[in-house]
Specification:
4-stranded antiparallel beta sheet, 185 residues, mainly beta
Amino acid sequence: MLVLLLSGCFTTTVRFPPDLWVWDTGGPFFDSGIHDTASPPTPVPAGEIGTVDTFAGGCNPGDTVWLLEVTTFGWTDDARVFMSRPGGMLEEHALLLIDSDPEGAWDRYQGGPLEAGVDPVAFAPGSNSTYACAVEDEVSFGVVLRDRFGAVSECVTWGPDRVDLGDQLEAFEAGISARGCLATP
């Protein structure tokens, strides 16, 4: 039998898992460029459960790393971002759940920082990207969400080559329809 006793008082909120970067601009490492507020925005759910509310993806102001963020309507079990550009490889990056509404209205996922422009041989999902920040305007993004049973609940694509990315996702993963990935929230 395992008994765990906790004692003491906490005067601050403890978040688990912790944020990957500081929301406030000019945090300890760099400004994420995704938000310029002192605290993260609180989503206001208005869509179907298990769908994408917002997506932000791009390079940081220093043009050295990619930062990715997805907010969902309702709780989801898994969020992944796919990156592609014409003639490039399809990259898959699992996102980490960093914040969740206790009432189940939304989840917030983040990925990165991903080192930009690494050699394809050294590609490691979740830690780097073959795409340099210089080609940011050519990169298309896809978000795939899964429910607690593992079924695809949402697939959405953005970017200049989103139709091709939808086709790649359909060939890559069961349960994805290229036509369904073209709907933008």
